[in-house]
């Protein structure tokens, strides 16, 4: 077992990597988040000492005392990003500095230490290099990366932890576009909200997800695919889905997305699509959109398309919207031309098939 040293990382290679035959079989049709690579990145933090023990190591279970803080008070944050294959066989990350900064913002909100951007970038780059054979090559597939941080001090007092563990996992994921792109049906949650002003809506923390599971289960019971949340104060403004931001496309080729006022997660896909849409000559508004207006515009034809976006599923068109007292269709409930154009524009950049005009790619090898 050779230990090479990257700038800050000790690299401990797995002595029992998955065999190449088995790996090839696993990469054929991976379900989201079920298959993981041979290695993981870890860095420890201790108050007074700071960040230390940066490692790429064989992926293994953690040993945590039952009184570990994260298990009781959910002091946990995470990121989601992908490494993409390039046409020449290399691999690239997409805007990883944006993930580094968002993790720092989430850390601030959850009273956790800030991981320096350089350490974050090295952790994901080194993990992708160590597990380079795990990046799938099929069209639309990628290596999903899950950086996260947990409070590891073993004590139940109600104050921030003095110890933390940062870790990155890598998981090959298949294309979301198999068999064409079908539009999803959304359930408007009236019983639940996702985020209140002053809460943690703009932090990427596990607690937000735990709190949205009941709403998502309700959506499934109602025969829908995903839940869409309204604002917590007026129960009127469309905010976002459980895990994706939302866009509206109008008959004058303008597009609109709710503004980042603190209760919406600032998606990197959202931000990238705003830039790409403007590059394509579309007018983009970051303005609130009321649920009644959404229904009226869908019914009058002023609203032509709507879609959700995020790293995992990229761009997913919204075909129908249902709630307790309403149900409406958008366009002909299929993926519309503007949605398709934006999705293609984003994928072309991420897969290195067009010029990277905004310097979004971070080549790993
Ligand atoms: C992660 C996430 C998104 C999408 O963010 P991307 O950076 O585009 O992947 C949107 N909404 C919520 C609630 C999220 O957690």
TrEMBL record:
Catalysed reaction(s)?
L-leucine + 2-oxoglutarate = 4-methyl-2-oxopentanoate + L-glutamate; L-valine + 2-oxoglutarate = 3-methyl-2-oxobutanoate + L-glutamate; L-isoleucine + 2-oxoglutarate = (S)-3-methyl-2-oxopentanoate + L-glutamate
What name goes with this protein? Answer: Branched-chain-amino-acid aminotransferase
A Pfam family assignment: Aminotran_4
Q: What does this protein do?
A: Acts on leucine, isoleucine and valine.
Obligatory cofactor(s): pyridoxal 5'-phosphate
Q: Which GO terms describe its molecular function?
A: branched-chain-amino-acid transaminase activity
Q: Keywords in UniProt for this one?
A: Amino-acid biosynthesis, Aminotransferase, Branched-chain amino acid biosynthesis, Pyridoxal phosphate, Transferase
